[in-house]
Amino acid sequence: MPFKKLVASALVAAAMASSGLVQADSVRIGLVVKALGIGFFEAANEGAQEAAKELGDVEVIYTGPTSTTAEGQIEVINSLIAQKVDAIAVSANDTDALVPILKKAQQRGIKVVSWDSGVAPDGRQVHLNPSSNALIGEMNVKLAAEAVLASGAEQGDIAILSATPTSTNQNIWIDEMKKVLPQYPNLNLVTTVYGDDLADKSYRETVGLLKSYPNLKAIVSPTSVGIVAAAQAVHDQGRAGEVFVTGLGLPSELAGHVDSGVVKSFAIWNPIDLGYAATMISYNLVKGSATDSSVGMGRIGTASLDADGSAAMAEPFIYNASNVHAFADIF
């Protein structure tokens, strides 16, 4: 073989070997969401992919069940364990039901992070709250008070449309809302209903609220699926301007409802940042770069961990007619 050809072949072989080495050493992170097809989680995956690109040696496996069930997530996590991923970052459909399967994952050497909706401490090493639970609860009540005033009333009935009855984050936020409500004597919470993070069920539950509570002034839905369905139901029932919808949602999905007057304001943290931070935390756990009190989140900063390994990312941000379209182009 001529010398030049020999050298060229050697370089190709070296490059292939190098490529194989990088592949073998890459960190594989399973990003498990409550259910596929939800805009909030699609945006979180965008952030996770951003983190993977920045880190350079990470593969993110974006996955989840087709419906918001713990059973579906257990099946997905079993598959990730079989694939021998290095870390699992999960937004849980149930606080406790995932603990046994996630303990199994940890016994196999897999690092486990819960984000958005948490897992009990035995099932994970770190939980990343999108914000402080107390601030989220307080924010939702504050938005409800503004919605009641927007209806032209000094006081009025409000209702909560949640996701599933077992959803960890929803239940914590609702508890925090109830702690703050005594500070708002003009608000009367009449009930909490559950749309299971399904658009059609959330829509039907909203129609039921409108019929059951004629003096209803505001519906608070701290879920991105529920708030859109509730806004559509209020619009379709011809109650815009009389009943306002607020809570937590995505600018891209709510800009039209802000324009129509069904939604005056709502809040959310940046789900892209949340997926980015969860991936960075997972990576640092795999690499042994975290301590018992802190772990890096890349461009977001450093998360301070409490005794249970929980941390908060940022405060919720309010969106209204003045800014929703600017953010709707982003997420």
Automatic annotation (TrEMBL):
InterPro entries: Bact_Solute-Bind_Prot2 (IPR050555), Peripla_BP_I (IPR028082), RhaS (IPR013459), SBP_2_dom (IPR025997). Residues 29-288 form the Periplasmic binding protein domain. GO terms for molecular function: carbohydrate binding. It is found in: Periplasm. GO terms for biological process: rhamnose transmembrane transport. Keywords: Signal. GO terms for cellular component: outer membrane-bounded periplasmic space. Residues 1-24 form the signal peptide. It comes from the Bacteria. Coiled coil: none annotated. Its main location: periplasm. Belongs to the bacterial solute-binding protein 2 family. This is Rhamnose ABC transporter substrate-binding protein.
